[in-house]
């Protein structure tokens, strides 16, 4: 049983930084990539970043390029380092596992609030 658990969200002032973590448990041999998404009330979930599970290739949404960095360690934890945060980054952040071309497993989310 695959489980994803996010942590690291919180309240931060504009210009500040946060690091989100996503701990992955269960069988990961079929994973293609891990992604981070975010969502605010009334809006669709938005892609933020992705990292290849085996090759660690990364890909970012234009809105976060240069400010966010996705990485992972050998202990099945995926990180999202966020710097120069702006109020528009306020959202619930979710990690998700990509298998067979679709994000099939999701965490419960962690809230990030950036005050101006």
Characterize the largest beta sheet: strand count, sense, and whether it forms a barrel.
Answer: 7 strands, mixed
Radius of gyration: 13 Å
* Proportion of beta-strand residues: over 45%
- Count, helices: 0
Shape: globular
> What value does the average pLDDT take?
96
**Secondary-structure element series:** EEEEEEEEEEE
Distance between the termini: 40 Å
User: How many strand segments?
Assistant: 11
Poorly predicted regions are none
| Percentage of residues in helical conformation | under 10%
SSE-based structural type: mainly beta
Structure description:
The structure is a single chain. The protein has no helices and eleven strands. With 116 residues, it is mostly beta strands. The strands form two sheets. Strands 2, 4, 5, 6, 9, 10 and 11 form a seven-stranded mixed sheet that branches. A hairpin with a 6-residue loop joins strand 4 and strand 5. The chain is globular. The relative contact order is 0.32. The mean pLDDT is 96.
How would you describe this structure in keywords?
116 residues; mainly beta; 7-stranded mixed beta sheet; 4-stranded antiparallel beta sheet
């Amino acid at each position: 049983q695959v489980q994803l658990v996010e942590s690291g969200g919180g309240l931060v002032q504009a210009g500040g930084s946060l690091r989100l973590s996503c701990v992955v448990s269960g069988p990961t041999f079929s994973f293609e990539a891990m992604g981070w998404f975010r969502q605010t009330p009334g809006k669709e979930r938005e892609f933020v970043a992705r990292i290849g599970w085996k090759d660690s290739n990364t890909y970012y949404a234009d809105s976060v390029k240069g400010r966010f960095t996705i990485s992972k360690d050998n202990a099945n934890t995926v990180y999202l380092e966020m710097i120069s945060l702006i109020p528009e980054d306020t959202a619930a952040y979710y990690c998700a596992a990509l298998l067979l071309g679709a994000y099939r497993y999701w965490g419960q989310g962690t809230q990030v609030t950036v005050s101006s």
